[in-house]
Amino acid sequence: MRILYYDCFAGISGDMNLGAMIDLGVDPEFLIDGLKKLNIEGFRLEISSDSRRGISGTKATVVIENQENEKHRHLRHIEELINQSSLSESIKATSIRIFDLIAEAEAKVHQIDKQRVHFHEVGALDSIADIVGAAICLDYLKVDRVISSPIQLGGGTVKCAHGIMPVPAPATAEIVRHVPVKSGLVNHEATTPTGAAILVAIVGEFTEQINFQIHKIAYGIGQRDISDLPNVLRVYLSDDSITDHTTAEGAMMVECNIDDMNPEWYDLLFEKLFEAGARDVFLTPVIMKKSRPGNRLCVLCSKSTVDDVKSLIFNYSTSIGLVCYEVSKTVLERQEKELVTELGAIRIKSSYFEGREIHAKPEYDDLKKIALKHGLSLSEVEKIVFKNR
């Protein structure tokens, strides 16, 4: 498993991210060639070695060649620019997802439709290069998981298009609303809207726990050099999982006891919870006060979806209170392969521990399809499948 970890102890900006990715091993020519596919002129990418407080890394700067001709764009203009390029579909999708996060945040701050958001700084060429460049770098690295530490926001005030604002800027605050953050370590804006949106769009988990072997460390150098804290973005790359082939993941458990709900309603509740990103949902029979039989509803979810899970429980069940706490989930390495048998192709899911396969099972939907097609029982099909392994 290939893991990319963002250590945002000093925050993140679009240019710091580009510098870190290049320092990590992204080919600068690959990035520059990818940006050229946008078919827009007026900027160039300058890459150099630099250091902050003795920490050396790579500094990436988008230089605007003609500030007067720089256009302000709305979301649809940016989407058209990206979709009409010759970039890969995955790069296009990631780029648009990042821009959409910023548009939704600005729209909420100003109480307007996101298509009417005037992007100001974010619509400028340097931010387009930062965001599309981030998607290009992620595509180059081909990672399986992206994890991040809580995001340092900084403190003090920041000058925006709308005037002087407290840190975090309103758009940044909206973007990071459901992820872990820290503040106050420095007296300036440590995380920009662009940097925040990049993380929220690509990171699958925010945690300070590092449960993998670090194979490479890289630093993206920021533009500032005004505090004792080095203005750098640190990233780690792991090329495989830890030695026992497990991964420890931070998660949240949300629980409540229910004794007055129509049992038929659980079906819709479960459906909604899984749609919201719950990793597991289950019921446990319990005896409640006055010897009443009831159910304990347990929902395992990520930190970023816990608020949605709470809202669904209150809206789709009769619960009036719940318990929420952090848990650590240990997951075996898993692989899925297709096996061709005399009955047809079927997917096999395998789990590994300490380098050896300890579980293997056919995909149920494939098993059922073959059983119905050939008039066999599920157990008969399963025997044939494992005979062919």
Note down, in words, how this protein is organized.
The chain is α+β, with helices and mostly antiparallel strands and 389 residues long. The chain folds into three domains: 3-238, no CATH class; 247-328, 2-Layer Sandwich (Alpha-Beta Plaits); 331-387, mk0293 like domain (Ubiquitin-like (UB roll)). Helix content is 32%, strand content 31%. It has eleven helices and 17 strands. It has helices at residues 14-24, 28-36, 75-83, 89-110, 125-141, 170-175, 193-202, 266-275, 306-316, 364-374, 378-387; strands at 3-7, 43-52, 55-64, 145-148, 151-152, 157-160, 163-166, 181-182, 205-206, 216-221, 232-238, 246-258, 280-287, 293-301, 323-341, 344-353, 356-362. The strands form five sheets. The chain has a six-stranded antiparallel beta sheet with strand order 13-14-12-15-16-17, with helices on both faces. Strands 9-4-1-11-10 form a five-stranded mixed beta sheet. The chain has a two-stranded antiparallel ribbon with strand order 2-3. The longest helix is centred in the first third of the chain and has 22 residues, at 89-110. The two termini are 24 Å apart.
